[in-house]
Amino acid sequence: MTATLPGPCVPPCPWCQARRWYEHGLRWPTAGPCSRAPLSLLTGVRFDVLDLPVDAGFAVLRRVGRTGPVTLDGRARRLRFLVAAGSADELPGLLDWLEWGGVALDLTALGAGGRIVAPLPRSAGDRAGRGHQGALGAGRAVWVRPPEPGCEVEPTLPVTGLGGEGGAPDLVRLVSAAATECHRARLLRAGQARTRRPTGDQPLAFSYASRMSAGTRPRSLTL
Predict the structure, then answer these.
(1) Listed ranges 9-23, 33-47, 204-218; the one with the highest mean pLDDT
(2) pTM of the shown model
(3) Is residue 222 part of a domain?
């Protein structure tokens, strides 16, 4: 009688491990057709997302000690702060109330119907093979402040004062810091761009011709 030996134990792919971790460990809904496509987390169900440039995002982390989980999308160079579900609808009103309405901040929010790239759990990412570059390649999303497995995420998420529990982070404070740092980062990037511009290359926005075409003649010509 010939004995049948078991085949070699093949570990599950990192994509499958990540999906299991999110759906069973955290009970977060995910999306993604197969292991060759990046796994996504659906927003607007357990949480919404505050999305801002990476330089502004890290400045916010230095200012605000308590936030919810935070992800870094290296490919998009964006930091994403998980906030209470429904916060995306509140963002425009909060920015108006904080007197940031109408200012170009590059600060957005994702709510119902949105999705973000799912950061790979550390254990899955450490064992990532070279054949999974679609989900685990260079620039993949990572956790900057990870969620706690086995714990409900909602009590840790920033929320407005009327809807939160006693220990929840304050959404208004987070949005205020995010708007300030987005504006500061935008000004710094503009200043660096001017510094790199060759001497004598005057920006059109400040040239005499552009001011004439816009109907804003120099004061010396209107006296």
Answers:
(1) 33-47
(2) 0.76
(3) no
